[in-house]
Description:
Blueprint lengths: L3 E6 L3 H4 L14 H14 L3 E5 L14 H6 L27 E4 L11 H7 L4 E7 L1 H14 L3 E10 L3 H13 L3 E3 L1 H5 L7
Helix pairs in contact: 5-6
Amino acid sequence: MYHTALLVIDMQNGFLCEKSPLFIDGAPATVPACAKVIAHCRRQGIPVFFITRAYAADGSDVEQPRRDAWETGGKPLSPGCAKEISAEMPEAFGTDEHDYRIVKPRYSAFFATELDLILRRLGIQHLILSGTTTPNCIRTTCYDAISLDYRVTVLSDCTSSKTPEIQESNLRDMANVGAEIMDSEAVLHTEIERL
């Protein structure tokens, strides 16, 4: 039985499309590497968790720092918004009936979600993190996971930030608190349980 799970965080049109006020510059370039890792994990029977954001049509659950941009930028990640800035994920990821889907209300995948409960029931001890953004959702999820005694691997080329400098700084900070940083090629060419 595998004790590892892959978390794919916020890889949604609302963060990947340049027309969205929530666009992350480095995120679109990570889609191919993320898709390869997702497919690899599915083939090996590694649980894949898609952790996403979705806002109410009235914006009542939008984070305060994003509120103005959300209201004036087409209400991304909300019902009725344009598909290009919607909560949908890239087609390259495909779908699998065994995938888990969790909607989170804030940055961390653990905050006010059932993630920790499901992971523990599955016997998961090691998390591989991918998605966007590195300084917000990846970092807060990483720190919460370490605080909950999970082993954490962050995929450097499957995570993204507004600038390369922000990306490198945050990867370094997570490494300094105990996360393992590696690229997707290492995952694709190593038996995951040996990571």
